[in-house]
Amino acid sequence: MSLRSSSAASAPGIADLIAQHALFAVFQPIVEFDGGTILGYEGLIRGPSGSPLESPGALFSRAAKEGMTTELEHAAARTCIQAFAKLGCEGKLFLNFSAEAILKLEETRDATLAWLLRLGLPVERLVVELTEQCAIADIAGFMPIVAALRETGAQFALDDYGTANASMNLWVRLQPDIVKIDRFFIDNIASDALKFEAVRAMQHFANSSGARLVAEGIENEADLIVIRDMGIGCGQGYFFGRPNASPATSITDDAKQSIRAEHIAVFPGQTRSVSASPSGGMAAAKMLVTAPALPRKATNNDVLDLFNHMPNLHAVAVVENGEPVALINRRAFMDRYALPYHRELFGKRPCLQFANASPVIIEKSMTVEQMAKLLASDDQRYLADGFVITDNGKYLGLGTGESLVRAVTEVRIEAARYANPLTFLPGNIPISSHIARLLGHDAEFFACYVDLNHFKPFNDQYGYWQGDEVLKFAAAVLADICDPTRDFLGHVGGDDFLILFQSEDWRTRVHHAIATFNEGAQRFYADADRAAGGIHGEDRRGNPTFFGFVTMAIGCVRVKSQPDHSHVYSSEMIASAAALAKRRAKQEPAGFFLIDVEEGESIMHMAATPQQPETEARTLN
């Protein structure tokens, strides 16, 4: 037996700790974002300091072994209430109870109320949290207990929502006053789109049910500001304070400053890493035709028998050690066998005689972007033969050219609704939405319209695929200079991007992007064109022209805070003004131009004039 386990075994039992009043309470603040005030504290229990049972995990584990869990919960509640009353803290006291402990609490309701009265702690200041420790066997029978609890004036909360037994079922049937979102969903929510959407769904339901949400586990400013801007009113976590026997009566100035931060959060899901691309797993599953394969030693007669037994099979793969080595197209094979004496001459010969020894192979994990490149490649055999789908190099099944075209098209159409299908950056709808959020919160920001000089002649000479690589490089450069918690990067279309900066050093970031792109873009040129300083081509009128390297131009519009609402802006007006600034930037040697919105109505009028070309003021509808 280890020293630690020996110490644990010799530690006092739970009944002894309760009798000796050896438990002590610590409190963690729960903060209201409106004003940064403390709504209340969650009371937590600890065992004797320095002992093996100091941590709540060890304490409740020992209680479970001794059959003393409910007794420990009640003792913990009494300890927390006594300490809280003695400290004289303001606000509510949140206490954790399992369903079984709440049932027994009801049995002692009158005595408990009298005890609270003697302590001078009104029951209205108590919030009973139902923990997720165990499932409720009889929810219907539990509901009247919760109703009786509320009749005393105490509030009822659902703790750790989203995990274990804290489910939608409980929320609907018990109708809690407060729902505490489990820390799993809050931690890193600023950069996790799935967590963000999950919490937003909880928020929609809370609005409908009338429950108040508390976000648990807030540990950094980025997560806090996302939660704040979602409209969730309260939070708890180490960012505001750790559990303490003598908790602070107010949060720190740094925490207050974070709550009052003027910048608006960039919600996850509206931005994506430019290196990311849609997984081909789902697309491959849609294309997959489950079909038997033949071994290398199979004969042409074996192929014929398989095609005769499976008339809908368009091809058959030849495999060796589970890996595809060839593909036999049904139509080509059957046409050969229709010739006189072919079966007699070739029937017993190896099937590889009429097989394509270099079939098109699509790995299950291949991205849709990689699949799309097959559509534009010189090798078009997949249209007739189909292709082989593998999983980690092992034969999985077949696919047809028609299914490949359909899968790529469907995925790209879906992606293009809210994200550019090439860079996967937010498209026009999310861009407009974020501008509207900035304007709605009266935030000061800089709208920067990005365009590439000489991109069309480069695209004409080097081809669309190489042009796409330049666009993806531009997206990567722009993403690198953005603070993902403050700056929003979108792809309007073509070689046009839009950045909505809230970073104070936005100007430095802009110039760094221009310099980085201008230098890096030269690697996309052939050596001869790099030495010449550009390429020869034709201008829009067909005249021979020499074009320099592709470079970046960024036009910016400063949108000031308007607390007096002296100017009413719209997403379209902001984008149009930025497009005008971009047009000027393309004429500047440095590739940068700034329009200050203080120039007033003339700027907005210029942005809205119908004479400007559509390409210079793209709408965001």
TrEMBL record:
One of its GO terms (molecular function) is cyclic-guanylate-specific phosphodiesterase activity. Residues 7-257 form the EAL domain. SUPFAM superfamilies: CBS-domain pair, EAL domain-like, Nucleotide cyclase. Signal peptide: none annotated. Residues 443-600 form the GGDEF domain. InterPro entries: CBS_dom_sf, Cyclic-di-GMP_PDE-like, EAL_dom, EAL_sf, GGDEF_dom, Nucleotide_cyclase, Rev_trsase/Diguanyl_cyclase. PANTHER family: CYCLIC DI-GMP PHOSPHODIESTERASE PDEF, SIGNALING PROTEIN. This is Phosphodiesterase.
